[in-house]
Amino acid sequence: STGRRNTTSRETATRTTRRRHYKIMKHIYITACSKDGGIYHYTFADKKLTFCEKLPLDRAMYTVIRDKTAYILLRDTGNGEGGLVRYHISDSGVLEDPDEVMPSHGVVPCHLCVKNDDVYLVNYLSGNVVKMPDRVVTHSGVGVNLPRQDAPHTHFVTFSPDGKYLLCTDLGLDTVFVYDGELNEVSKAKVPAGSGCRHLCFGDNGRLVYCVNELSSDVSVFSFDNGKLELLDTYEAIPDFEGRSTAAAIRLYNGFLYVSHRGADCISRFKVAGDGLELLENTPCGGSDPRDFDIADNVLFCANEGGSIGIISLENGSPALVDSVELSGDPLCVSFFEN
C-alpha cells in the first residue's frame, strides 16, 4: 500500500474547480504603517481570509514581492530618512532572514519596483528617484495646487512592459517622467495642472498608460510609444460625489480599470473602450481611506488605512463587497505570493 487515500472522481472535480477560481495557498501580505504596524501575513482559499502571523516593523510603507523575496520600504530608520530591507519568503510564506537595512536616500520612501536584480524607489518628500544602492536623481519646481504642490513629490515608479523605460510620477509637478535604466531622462509629459499624478499602470498591449490623479480623483490616459507619452484625455471617476476625496491606487484587470478613492471610500470601475474609458460604477471599499489594492482570482483586496481589509468579488459581472476584515496599524499596501 502507498498509504494514500483513494480519491473519488467527484472530489477530484471539486478540487479542480476550486483551484481554477481560488489558487491553493495564496499568501497575502498587508503592509501597515504605524509604529506598531508591520507586515500581516494571511492565506486565502475557499473565499476565506485566514490570519497566519505578523512581522513587526516600524512604519512599513510599501512591499513588492519578486520570486521568493519581499522588498519592504520603511518610512524612518531613525535618522529622519527611510530605508529598504529584503526578507526571504519560506515555502510556508513566512518572512525570514532579513538583509541589513539600506538607506533610501530620502524622506518618506513610498513606492518601489524591481527588475532582475535592480531596485528602484522614490522618496515622496525628497522628490527624488533612486536606483539602489546610490544613484539619485532629484526633481525641482512647484505646482499650482498649494500647499500640496509646494515642491516635487515623487510617488510611483515602474518599468514599461518591454523593460526599456522607467516611468516615475511626480505629484508636486503634475509630471510623468520617463527614464532609462540608469535614470537618464528620456522624456516627460504633464497631466492637467493641479491634478497631482500619483500612480499609473499600462494597458494590456503596452501602448496606453493610465494615470490616476490624486488631487482631482480622475484618470488621465496617455499614448506611449518609444519612450514618449502623449496625453489623450482625462476621465472623471466620482462625478456625483460632493465632498472632498483624493485618489490613491490604480490597477488593470481583465479589461477593466479600477481606482481607489479616499473620502468617497470606494473603488471606481472603468471599462476600457478603445483608447478611452467608460465609468461603470463605484463600489464601497469595505472601510475608510482606501490606499493600495490588488486583484487575483477575481477577488480585489483593498487596504483601508482606516483599519480594515475590504474583500470585493469580481466574479459575477460587477464588483460586490463580500467581507471586511478589521486590521490595526494603518494598512497601506497589498502584496501576493503563491507557492
What would a concise description of this structure say?
The chain has 339 residues and is mainly β. Helix content is 4%, strand content 55%.
Task: Tell me what you see in this structure.
This protein has 339 residues and is mainly beta. 4% of the residues lie in helices and 55% in strands. It is built from one helix and 29 strands. It has one helix spanning 9-21; strands at residues 26-32, 38-45, 48-56, 60-66, 69-74, 83-89, 95-96, 102-103, 109-115, 118-123, 128-131, 135-138, 154-159, 166-170, 175-179, 185-190, 197-202, 208-213, 218-225, 228-236, 246-253, 256-262, 266-273, 276-284, 290-296, 299-304, 308-313, 320-326, 331-338. Strands 4, 5, 6, 7 and 8 form a five-stranded antiparallel β-sheet that branches. It has a four-stranded antiparallel β-sheet with strand order 3-2-1-29, with no helix packed on it. A four-stranded antiparallel β-sheet has the order 9-10-11-12, with no helix packed on it. A hairpin with an 8-residue loop joins strand 5 (69-74) and strand 6. The chain is globular and about 45 Å long. The two termini are 29 Å apart. Residues 1-24 have low confidence and may be disordered.
